[in-house]
Amino acid sequence: MIKKYLLKVYDFVILKWIDLKRYLFSDVVVLSIGDIMLVRRIPTHLQLAVASLLLDVEQYVKGDKSLRYQSEGKKLSYGENYDASEDNARFSALIESCIKNGFDKDSFIYVDKEIRLFNGTHRTAICLHLGINELKARVLRRKEDYIKDVNSFDDIKGSKERNVLISQKLNEIQKMIFDRGISFCCFLSNKYNNTESVEFDILHHFHVERVLELNNADSLICGFDLSEGGRLYLFSIDNPRYKCVNSCIESQETKDICQKIQEKYGISNNQLFISHSCYEGKKIYDALTPYFLKEHVVNEQ
């Protein structure tokens, strides 16, 4: 009994020290769900964890409060004898609070310098369920080695059935991200006469998921010239290479992509714009939504 108590005190002190270090050595930004949940070629184990917790949240609001996936995950991580009751009680309380009072938008998740989620999986899952697109985050100034890429089911524990369901849920999250426009986006004006000939697939790390035709407008929209209409491309990239700039995150990769496309096709700055984060992409998507004409079918890669 004394040993268990001392372990709890030790855990509390260590966790508080970790929280203090994170507070002192981090930047505060606002992110979109897309910035942390859009898969970059290979999912991380914590993106899969969010998918599993989202399954729990969905079942919870339907009346099944067993939190099966969290319980199974804890046992897979810590052994069959692990008692997940305290973890489940905290998760239940968080779900109930968000249902009753709404999500606390002043709470933080934690991401590493590459904007990969490593603390806040439960809150992220709840945000996905509630349709909340933005989160406050503390960005550490280092890469977090704890975050692991998951190449196949062989890299994770659990039954095949469980892993398939979690993988399917993660795929649903990807579709939701693009359906809501919470991804990177690229605006291309129809003033560039060869819009159809621009092949974004020349960049192997640039994956177009949706292409939306835009109607023309009499005035500038978000600084974009829609006098002759245009197209909006929604995409993901394998390695955004994020940096924190003035309390915002910016992808260095999208800047390079923009330059490559301009050089290849001779497109001027006022005819092409690529968002530097999914957060920025969502703002553009929402502003251009009233001008959507139709959606083009994207060829499967």
Overall domain count: 2
Number of strands: 11
What is the averaged pLDDT score? 84
Helix-strand sequence: HEHHHHEEHEHEEEEEHEHE
Structural class: alpha+beta
Oligomer type: single chain
Quick one: biggest sheet?
5 strands, antiparallel
Number of helices: 9
Radius of gyration (Å): 21 Å
Main sheet: which strands, in order across?
10-5-7-6-11
Beta content comes to 15-25%
The 3D shape can be described as elongated
Gap from first CA to last CA: 58 Å
Uncertain runs are 9-18
Q: Can you give the helix content as a percent range?
A: 40-55%
What does it look like?
The protein is an alpha+beta fold. It folds into two domains: 2-180, no CATH class; 184-296. The protein has helices at 2-24, 33-37, 45-61, 68-78, 85-101, 121-130, 160-180, 252-265, 278-288; strands at 26-32, 108-111, 117-119, 134-140, 184-189, 206-214, 230-237, 242-245, 248-251, 272-274, 292-296. α3 (45-61) packs antiparallel against α4 (68-78) and α3 packs across α6 (121-130). The longest helix has 23 residues, at 2-24. It is elongated and about 65 Å long.
Task: Summarize this entry quickly.
The protein is α+β, with helices and mostly antiparallel strands. It has two domains: 2-180, no CATH class; 184-296. 43% of the residues lie in helices and 20% in strands.
